From TrEMBL:
It comes from the Eukaryota. Keywords: Coiled coil. Residues 344-353 have a biased composition (Polar residues). The lineage of its organism: Eukaryota, Fungi, Dikarya, Ascomycota, Pezizomycotina. Residues 58-113 form a coiled coil. Residues 357-366 have a biased composition (Acidic residues). InterPro entries: UIM_dom. This is Uncharacterized protein. Residues 319-343 have a biased composition (Basic and acidic residues). Residues 282-292 have a biased composition (Low complexity). Residues 228-266, 282-370 are annotated as: Disordered.
Length: 385
């Protein structure tokens, strides 16, 4: 029979020290002690302060678990505080970036508008400078300009007289040809006076209830008004106003007729304005009916020059717009890079948030105390990486 000596722990119901005195039977059978309660005698000695090894190990694991929980809570608080600060910093940075971008875009648009206006003004001045000489040469070398200059040299007094008489004729034509508003007002006055006189003359002649008689009355009003108030044709201008020179500037002759209608006066004014385009005085303008071939040729030359000038100006304007567009794209490149950097920062923030959420889900799903230590250590290692 084996004898077992135990020293119990004071802080737990477990033995701290156990000594076994084996009997010969257990030694013979190769056992550590005899099997069965009746074959073992137990002697309890005085207890020992403290706990057994198993309880001490469990206490150490509990303390380690508490420390690990405290570390995890501290790390979580740090991450939450850092995330809040990161959100505030990110919003502040985004607001500053937005204000800077708006200010930069406003300044850039103002500079671009000023630059485009300056380039267009420079192009216009350059275009005028390059083509002014050509237009002056055409005006100076044209046959019509030479003929008018020769006529001015030969007959200076007739030019002054013609200019004075032409001005008088135009003024008289404007006085004799009223405007549309004046004609309308005058016509209203005439119609009212005609109606009043007709009513006074024909009152009581016949009844006004019959529709046919009323129609006859209206027709008679119109006929009476036409016979009474029809204006005579405008007077002819003085025969001396139709004096002109021949294309070579020699001698004088009479025109077919003076401008007695509004269409002829407008034709004369348009001819004078076309001559003033070449820088020539209106007093020496020849009749367009005398030189139709020369005037049409000059008009074609001027039209061709204007077409070339317009084409050159449009090409220059298109080139300036292309330059401004390229410059704008180059200036917008830094803003696009800043937007890409902002998107990357947002993606990294979302990844960090997903890691924190996965850690919380991991803690909620795994509550086994035996596996918690190793899994949390692995989680912390992965989180730090």
């Amino acid at each position: 029979m084996c004898h077992l000596t135990r020293h119990m722990a004071t802080e737990c119901p477990h033995p701290i020290v156990e000594n076994v005195d084996q009997c010969e039977d257990s030694i013979w059978e190769g056992l550590d002690q005899c099997e069965g309660e009746n074959e073992i005698t137990v002697e309890t000695k005085e207890p020992i302060e403290g706990k057994c090894m198993m309880c001490q190990q469990m206490d150490a694991e509990r303390r380690e678990h508490q420390n690990m929980q405290a570390v995890i809570e501290q790390i979580g608080e740090e991450f939450r505080a850092r995330a809040e600060n990161a959100d505030a910093d990110f919003e502040r940075i985004m607001e500053e970036s937005r204000r800077e971008a708006e200010e930069r875009n406003r300044i850039q648009e103002a500079d671009e508008e000023a630059q485009i206006a300056r380039l267009m003004e420079e192009s216009r001045r350059e275009f005028q400078t390059q083509n002014q000489g050509t237009l002056d040469d055409v005006n100076a070398n044209s046959d019509l300009a030479k003929a008018l200059a020769a006529s001015r040299r030969t007959t200076p007094s007739n030019d002054a007289k013609f200019e004075y008489e032409l001005a008088q004729a135009l003024a008289l034509s404007k006085e004799q040809i009223p405007t549309a508003e004046d004609e309308e007002a005058q016509m209203k006055v005439i119609m009212e006076e005609s109606l009043r006189q007709y009513q006074d003359q024909n009152q009581g002649a016949y009844g006004d209830e019959d529709a046919q008689l009323q129609a006859i009355l209206e027709l008679s009003k119109i006929e009476w008004h036409r016979q009474t108030w029809q204006q005579p044709p405008p007077p002819d201008l003085e025969a001396s106003l139709s004096v002109d020179m021949d294309p070579q500037g020699r001698g004088k002759g009479h025109r077919p007729g003076a401008p007695t209608s509004l269409g002829q006066v407008e034709q004369l004014q348009s001819a004078l304005s076309s001559f003033s385009f070449f820088g020539l005085p209106s007093s020496s303008a020849a009749s367009p009916s005398h030189q139709p071939g020369t005037q049409s040729q000059e008009s074609k030359e001027i039209g061709a020059i204007r077409a070339q000038q317009q084409a050159a100006y449009e090409a220059s304007l298109a080139a300036d717009r292309e330059k401004a567009k390229k410059k704008k794209e180059e200036e917008e490149a830094p803003r696009k890079h800043a937007e890409e950097a902002t998107k990357q920062a947002e993606n990294s923030k979302q990844a960090q948030h997903s890691i924190e959420e996965s850690g919380e889900e991991y803690e909620q799903e795994h509550d086994d105390p035996a596996l918690l230590k190793a899994k949390r250590l692995a989680f912390l290692d992965r989180l730090q990486k």
